[in-house]
Amino acid sequence: MSKPYNDLTPIEADVILNKGTERPFTGKLTDTMEGGLYVCRQCDASLYTSEHKFVSHCGWPSFDDEIEGAVKRVPDADGRRIEIVCAKCEGHLGHVFEGERLTENNIRHCVNSISMKFIRNDA
């Protein structure tokens, strides 16, 4: 039997379930650069490692790669951006951008802090 999803606060639910966005530069994980693992707040699936996190100065945590198979890309309803969701529970994470040349991988996963939990390597 699979474990039920984690309970979400109203603010977490607004972002994760209703595709909201937290205000820039307000998320707890925006500037976190410690070694560790980023997991989905709703289902605890592993999403990103700290190895791929970088400082983009955009106001949200940024990653230039995801754990293989962890993130699904979905075109936004307006067709202008690509939404990223957890592959396991389909909770909203943020958006992905390509071609900005911010890293060698030339991709930026712009993720809401509130959509994730951070597990330090020494935890």
From TrEMBL:
InterPro entries: Met_Sox_Rdtase_MsrB (IPR028427), Met_Sox_Rdtase_MsrB_dom (IPR002579), Mss4-like_sf (IPR011057)
GO terms classed as biological process: protein repair; response to oxidative stress
Catalysed reactions, semicolon-separated: L-methionyl-[protein] + [thioredoxin]-disulfide + H2O = L-methionyl-(R)-S-oxide-[protein] + [thioredoxin]-dithiol
MF GO annotations: metal ion binding; peptide-methionine (R)-S-oxide reductase activity
Domain of life (superkingdom): Bacteria
Enzyme superclass (EC): oxidoreductase
Gene3D superfamilies: Peptide methionine sulfoxide reductase (2.170.150.20)
Names of required cofactors: Zn(2+)
EC number: 1.8.4.12
Keywords, ordered alphabetically: Metal-binding, Oxidoreductase, Zinc
Keyword Zinc carried by entry: yes
Annotated Pfam families: SelR
Stated name of the protein: peptide-methionine (R)-S-oxide reductase
Lineage: Bacteria, Pseudomonadati, Pseudomonadota, Gammaproteobacteria, Oceanospirillales
